[in-house]
Design brief:
Structural class: alpha/beta
Helix content: 40-55%
Radius of gyration: 21 Å
Order of helices and strands: HEHEEHHEHEHEH
Strand content: 5-15%
Length: 197
């Protein structure tokens, strides 16, 4: 009689082991992922700025114009400039050439970014982080911008090819930041639009 139950018990035991093992792996790599936001979080007028002065901000500027959003593109915006805006989009990506044009060091750019983030949080402005340069700006400077801005973020948009380090994944999960990762830059328009409409 007990021999009839042995195969069932073995199957149940194996299923339990598989479930425990797979849930552990999933949890460690989990990001609060969406194809786009289920409801808008931002309002116009929108400030689009850059940390690290990469040229990718121009792509998001053009995309916002195509979506007929009321925007200002100010890559060097300061915290004192936020009084006129209802949402902030920050393009993350370090460019040594772009930064050289501002005559600002990396450390000063980081201070500008942190002041901007603190002021936006203090005035309850939604903060949307965009990192679309992928592997081309996968250096320590860009990662510092990403890691320091995540605790302030309301939404993160990036490329799937972006090799998000476990540190970034942990920070996104810890801060419960809704995240959309897309295959290519053209796919960003839908999640970006979902922020406002």
């Amino acid at each position: 009689m007990t021999k009839k139950f042995i195969p069932s018990l073995v199957c149940l035991l194996l299923a339990s082991i598989f479930l425990i093992a797979s849930s552990g792996l999933t949890k460690s790599n989990y990001i609060n992922s969406y194809p786009h936001l289920p409801a808008p979080i931002g309002q116009e007028k929108v400030l689009i700025t850059s940390t690290g002065q990469s040229a990718e901000g121009l792509i998001i500027k053009k995309m916002a114009e195509n979506l007929n959003l009321e925007i200002d593109y100010r890559p060097r915006a300061l915290a004192t400039d936020l009084y006129d805006y209802q949402s902030v989009v920050i393009i993350l990506g370090y460019s040594p050439n772009g930064l050289a044009q501002t005559q600002r060091s990396f450390e000063k750019e980081k201070v500008r970014m942190n002041d901007l983030l603190k002021e936006a949080k203090g005035t309850n402005l939604p903060i949307i982080l965009v990192h679309i340069s992928g592997k081309y700006r996968d250096e320590d400077y860009t990662r510092q911008f990403i890691n320091e801005s995540i605790p302030y973020a309301h939404y993160f948009i990036g490329l799937k090819e972006l090799s998000l380090s476990s540190e970034v994944i942990i920070a996104l999960r810890k801060n419960n930041v809704p995240t959309t990762l897309v295959n290519n830059v053209g796919d960003i328009q839908i999640p970006f639009n979902s922020v406002f409409r």
